[in-house]
Amino acid sequence: MHSIAAYQEQFLNYLEGQKILKEPTHLYQPITYILGLGGKRMRPVLTLMAAEVFDVDYKKALPAATAVEVFHNFSLVHDDIMDDAPLRRGKETVHEKWNLNTGILSGDAMLILAYQYFENYEPSTFRELAKLFSKTALEVCEGQQYDVDFETRDDVTIPEYLKMIEYKTAVLVGAAMKMGAIIAETSEENGNLIYDFGLNLGIAFQLQDDYLDCFGNPETFGKQVGGDIIENKKTYLYLKAIEFAKADEREQLLHLYSIQPNDNSEKIESVKEFFN
Ligand code: GRG
Who is most buried in 21, 36, 58, 213, counting CB within 10 A? Predict the structure, then answer.
């Protein structure tokens, strides 16, 4: 096994060697832009690691690792459009830097591009990878829809929330790892075991992501939950706050929760005060 940094370096070398930028440049430039913006490269590293766990040269898993990272970045481009987010990884989002249509079309192209990386494998492996990938992509879509649906509901339960993050975030982590197992041609049982490991890792990762959103930055310490409520975001911290709140506080929370983004600033301040 190698260090995480070594897997990251190998992956980045491979990614750089890909000739993604071609005509029409307005379609492909945003793709190279988002893929070049950095990020932790957690998913491709996990694909490479999983391949090695099952005794195959991790380099064989580089195309599948790229498929996973391209797909992940595609989902970020479209997620940023849906959230109208100005920044991604501290830089302008694709739709902000170019425009909405470019964000949609470049994102679409990334989804197809991701699939094409599986063509590097022989037919039976290709079939298994493509099957897993289709199932996963659809689940990510479903998870995203649950997340959107939850914005207009005030009765979301923690099990429902956990299901939503399993689909939106964790299935891709599970699939990233299972791809390593498929490429290594290990047993189905091993493939399922490493998928479950990745799934749980993905759930833990999303819970931590929610936590860091709230407490990760000292400048916004404790304020994000209030912000999430204003934006109607259902996060683990918000749902836990509701669960633990005493009955009268719960009523107050739910009342505050009815606040809309265009409500006056006095109301918004009262939400923030509540969480300070
Ligand atoms: C699947 C067809 C299809 C459509 C996509 C937009 C959408 C539907 C889904 C959004 C899924 C999404 C953005 C989930 C959040 C996943 C997540 C935790 C992102 C942050 O991951 P990090 O921290 O990011 O690994 P870096 O920047 O390190 O790559």
Answer: 58
